[in-house]
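Lab manual, section 2.4: Encoding a predicted structure.

Procedure: take the sequence of the chain (386 residues), apply the prediction step described in section 2.3, and record the output as structure tokens. A sample record is shown.
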Amino acid sequence: MFSLSLSKSREERVKSKIEERRWWLFHAIDFQSLMYPCFIFCRILGMHPYKINALLFEISKPYYILSTITVCVSCFCALIIIINISESFDLNQNIRKIIELISFYIIGNFITIITFVLSGPRIRLFKTLRQISSRLPPESYQKPSILIHAKDMFGFFFLLVYTLSYHNWHFSVLCLLYYNLVIFQINMLYINCVYVLKACFKKINNDLENLITKYDQPHLVRWFYHKQKNSFLLKELKALKKQHLKISESVQMLNIIFSPQLLATIIFIIIIITFELYFNMIDWRNGLSISWIRQISHRNVMPYVVFYAVKIALIVWVCEAGKNQAIKISTIVHDLLNNTNDEQIKHEVLKIFISVYFFYISYHDTFFTYRIEHLKYYKLCNISLF
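Recorded output:
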């Protein structure tokens, strides 16, 4: 009995050590550990009403109540500040700054409310991403975790220090800081999720390339058409097709959940960059002139503008990288079609091709040329697809 209790306590200690190791900074080994800093910051802001558990995602009632209170208080505070915007920031009838701040509070309030309302769909997205990313090897998280954890922490503390040092501490500035941090963390959540999906697409590409490599090996050619070999290849293709469908559904879910916040963020960044650069760099006295001296005198504004420019560039970069991995699948499927004459295998490959095709049609309205190429391929293959 005593030895049994000792073994149980030993197992618990080992399990706790594994959990501690799982959450080390810059050493992610799975989806949860990759997202952990972002989850922690979202919880601090009241935007993460979930239990942070290595085994599951589920809504926590205490944190959900806290999120509800936080959103209600932030909305009420934003309304008061907008009504008394001139007194809150001592603007002295500066119309440009009034428009900029009102736009910021409206957009920040909108993003906060939408994020709270979509808490349920977001947890389903996290569960799906955790499931489909479980096939990724732990090594694929190591290097990206350095960049992802660093950007999450640097951005959070940069906004915290910069906002509090640039403005005098009072109620309006704290609300300004809160919305800044919420917008940043929602954007980082999106970037991290897109990166995980990119890694999943890359894994499918590698698996398809491995199938081509096996098929091209000379010692396999003479018995490739054997029934057992065909069944193995068909099983692999069906698994990859199923995995691709899950990833495509996750992309659709991600777009639905984060599109309103991203659109609002882009509008906000355009307003910030336009107002700050235009009114701090351009002078209309005796014609148009760009005053670099005036820009240097407003050096406290430029880091803010650069920060948002870098953030939008980061969003564009990760989306482009994910799109490239998704496009690469169609090229590999073309190679598979060219390397086989078996009707059954070609049938399964074309099913993958169709799922890729509808993925493109769903998210690229101008993808007309790809549609024509795909239809030509179906006619050439002359196979009944359904």
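Check your result against the sample. DSSP finds 14 helices and four strands in the chain.
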